Every structure is written in structure tokens, then in C-alpha cells.
Amino acid sequence: MILFSVFQIIKQDYWEFALYACAGLAFISMGLLTDDVFPRQRKFLNVVSWIFILAAVFMFLFLLRTDLTA
Fold it and tell me: Using alpha carbons only, how large is the chain's radius of gyration in Å?
């Protein structure tokens, strides 16, 4: 997802860059949670991962709506 977001920024498609970057960062933070890399920051990583997930969902719905009306 992160590599695809880099591709989107090269294409200068900023909304899709933000969508894929948020989704990729959510996957990374969830992976850090499951591997228990930072046990002291577990609650913080959980909150951050949910923020990235919700941001990706809202951006996906926004892009879906704007693509249908264009």
C-alpha cells in the first residue's frame, strides 16, 4: 500500500495518495501491535491504527462519491 501511494504521488493524484498512505500506515501499526514490538505504547498504537483506518474509510467513501458524480 505504501509503495502504491508513492506511485500515486508521482502521478500527482493527491487524494488517492492519502487514501493508500492511510491504509498502509494502518496495516503497519496493526502489525506492530500484533508483533508486540512496543508493549508500553500499545494503547497509543491502537488509537493511531483506528484513526488511520477511519481516515482511509472516509477518504474511500469520498473518492467513491466524487468518482460517481464526475
Answer: 14
Helices (H), the chain: 2-10, 14-35, 42-69
The residue behind cell 493511531 is 48
Domain count of the chain? 1
Interatomic CA distance for residues 14 and 24, integer angstroms? 15
Contact 33, 55 (CB under 8 A): no
Please name the residues in contact with 38: beta carbons below 8 A apart, sequence gap of 6 or more.
32, 45
Distance CA 67, CA 70 (A): 5
**End-to-end alpha-carbon separation of the chain, Å?**
25
pLDDT in tens, 2-37: 999 999 999 999 999 999 999 999 999 999 999 988
Whole-prediction pTM: 0.85
Residues of the domain holding 6: 2-69
